[in-house]
Structure formats: C-alpha cells, structure tokens
C-alpha cells in the first residue's frame, strides 16, 4: 500500500478525492500510483503520479471531469494535455497551492501498465506485476567525443564574451559548461540516467558530488565567470579524455590545442 503522507501535506486530500471519483466512474477500470512514490524514492518535494486505465473512447470526457473534481479541492492554475503516443493522454496539473499532479490515461493495452506501479484499485487485475525496465545503453566513445567537442567549442567562446564584456551571456555559457560536466559524470561507469529532471544527487557518487560542490561560486562578473569556467575545464577535460581513451576513442587533441592557444591570456587552463 502506498504511503501518500510522504508527500507534502495537502496531496492526501487530492489523492483520496481522485480515488473516490475513479471508483464511481464506469469507464475507469483501474488506478495506480506510479513514479517516485511507486519506486519508494519520493520525498516531501515530489509530485503525485497516477496511472488511470480507462475505456479509450471516454478519455476526453474524463479529462474535463478530473479537472472539475480537482478544482473542488484546490483551484487548478496550470494544465497541460499531452499525447505522447496514440491512445495515451497525460494531464499535467499545478494547483494554486503548487501541488503538482501527472495523470496518465490510457487503455489497458496502450502500454501504460509496463512500469512499476502500486495498485490503488484494480478489480480485474489488469496489472500482473511484471514490467520491463531498460538499462541505460552503454556509453560509446563517439558520444563522449561529441560532448567534449561541444564543451571545447563553448569554452572557446569565452574569449568572445570577454572581448564584448557581456557578463550575462558569459553566465549562460558557464551554466552550459556545468551542465556538460554533469552529463559527463553520468556517463562515467556505471552509466546512470537521472530519475527525473528535478533529482540528481541520489545517482552521483560521493566523489562526483564533491566535485560539483567544490566548484567556485558564479556571479555576473567576468573575472568570477572566468575562474568558474577555468575550474570546470580543469575538471572536465582530463576526465573526458580518460573516458574516451578507455572506450578506444581518439581525443580531439587539435581542437583542444587550438582552444587553449585561443584562450591564452583569458583563461588559465
């Protein structure tokens, strides 16, 4: 049974209201908790993910009903209706209390049951407890070379930013470099994928976490941004080279040498 109280107070009322609504709908065949709650990784900052199996011909009508039902608990201030695959609809909602709900609707044969779920009600036992979860594909040297090449390209543009004195663009570039470092850390063996766009720490090891925490602060100041970018480069470049060579790839040495020469006097790499 799911412990809805792991989430921020207020989600419980929304959850139970949706469950009560679903049980009264002839076209709703089953309801499950999914996402971080089902995986046991939810915390007070997680959202509520539900999978709702319905008769496909009733999906659009049910979406309007769900919005009305949620609105009786908390006003809905944002809604998105997405159709990632035929026969599947995702209703993404934010309430005025900033409670976030992602509700996935689809038929029993639409593929929405091929994931880890916790049944809320499933009288016909549509979900048999089995699902396939693909492991991340192995990292290839080409992937890392592509990432390293882009890192060097963005790094080289630091000279342009410095010449123009555009600290705001410099800040954007520094953030891009940091994101590429995170991507590289996730590529390091064993390759990992982020559980969500809003969660990273649990899948980085202690050393990788320390690397990110040890980066200097950033601000809209060229000297500070240069220090930050230099620190990123000193971490990224040797790690990327080591990974590429371990995968049998060839490090883009000519681009690195040209970038270092171009940045001479701007960044001390």
Summarize the structure.
This protein has 269 residues and is an alpha+beta fold. 44% of the residues lie in helices and 14% in strands.
Report what the structure shows.
By secondary structure, the protein is of the alpha+beta class. It has two domains: 4-121, Beta Polymerase, domain 2 (2-Layer Sandwich), CATH 3.30.460; 141-262. 44% of the residues lie in helices and 14% in strands. The chain is built from nine helices and six strands. It has helices at 11-23, 35-39, 59-71, 141-156, 158-164, 167-187, 206-213, 222-246, 253-262, and strands at residues 28-33, 48-54, 76-82, 88-95, 100-106, 118-121. The chain has a six-stranded mixed beta sheet with strand order 3-4-5-2-1-6. A hairpin with a 4-residue loop joins β4 (88-95) and β5 (100-106). α4 (141-156) packs parallel to α9. The termini are far apart. The relative contact order is 0.11.
Q: Which descriptors would you attach to this protein?
A:
44% helix; elongated; 9 helices; 269 residues
Structural class: alpha+beta
DSSP, total strands: 6
Q: pLDDT under 50 segments (min length 5)?
A: none
Mean pLDDT: 91
- Which descriptor suits the 3D outline? elongated
SSE blueprint and pairings:
Blueprint: H1 11-23, E1 28-33, H2 35-39, E2 48-54, H3 59-71, E3 76-82, E4 88-95, E5 100-106, E6 118-121, H4 141-156, H5 158-164, H6 167-187, H7 206-213, H8 222-246, H9 253-262
Parallel strand pairs: 2-5
Antiparallel strand pairs: 1-2, 1-6, 3-4, 4-5
